[in-house]
Amino acid sequence: MNRNERFAPDKVARLEIRLAWATLEISADDVDQVQLIVSGTDADVDDLKVSLEGGTLSVEQPSYGLTPRIDLVRWMQIFVRLPRNWRGAVTASTIAGPLRAEGLEGSDLCLETVSGDLRTRNLTAIEAKLRTVTGHILSDGLQAERLGLRTISGSSQVDGIRSRTARFSSVSGSWQLGFAAPFQSLEGASVSGDVCVTAPMDAVHLISHGKSGRVILERMLQREDAPTVTLTEVAGQAVLIGSAQAEAASTGKAE
Fold this sequence. Notes:
The chain is mainly β. The protein contains 2 helices and 21 strands. It has a 21-stranded mixed β-sheet that branches.
C-alpha cells in the first residue's frame, strides 16, 4: 500500500517524526511542497498517524508495532522530501529502524535512534544533535553553531564538521571526529571507548579529567590562549591530531 500526502511549506514550521521500526529517510529536494511518501503493508500504513496542527507536522508510528508476531510479514518505508529553501526545525526519532537525512538546512535538527543506524550527509543548522544508544552514527558534512553528539555503545564517525561549540559523549562507544574548520570549544566524555579528533589547528587549551584514560596531542600544542578542549576519559584513549595531519585525515569521506 502507498500513501502520499503534501503540505504547503509556509504552513509547516516544525517536523516531528516518531517511529518504532519503520525505515525513515528525510532529504531536501527540488520540490515546492513538503511531501510525505509511505510504502508498506496495508495495516501498518493505515496505523501511521499524520497531523498538521499549529505549524507542526507530526508523523507517528504506534509503539505497539514493536511487538513481534511471526505470523505477520511487515515492512514500511517513509520518505520525507522538503523544499531546498525550507528552514524549519526537524525532530526525528526511531527505535529499531534506520534513519537517513541528507541536505537539510534548518534552525534546529535533532535526529535520534535506539538500535537503528543513523546516517547523515550535508546538514546545516543553528543547533544540531545526533544521538543513538547502540546504533552507529555515520555523518559527512555537518555544520552547526552548536553541535551535540551522543551514543552509548555505538561506533561513530563524523567528518566535515564545522561548529563553533561541540560536545560528544559515549560509554563504551568509539568516536572519530573530523573537523573541517577550527572550533572555539570542544567538550567530550567517554568511559571506555577510544576517541580520535582531527582539526586544522596547531594549538588547544587542553583540560583533561580521568583515571586511567590517556589523552595524546599530535602536531598540536598546549596553549592557554588557544580554543578550549575539555575531555573526560575514564579508561580509554583520546588522540587529538592537528595541522597537516588533520587536513589529510579530513579527505576521507563517510559512505
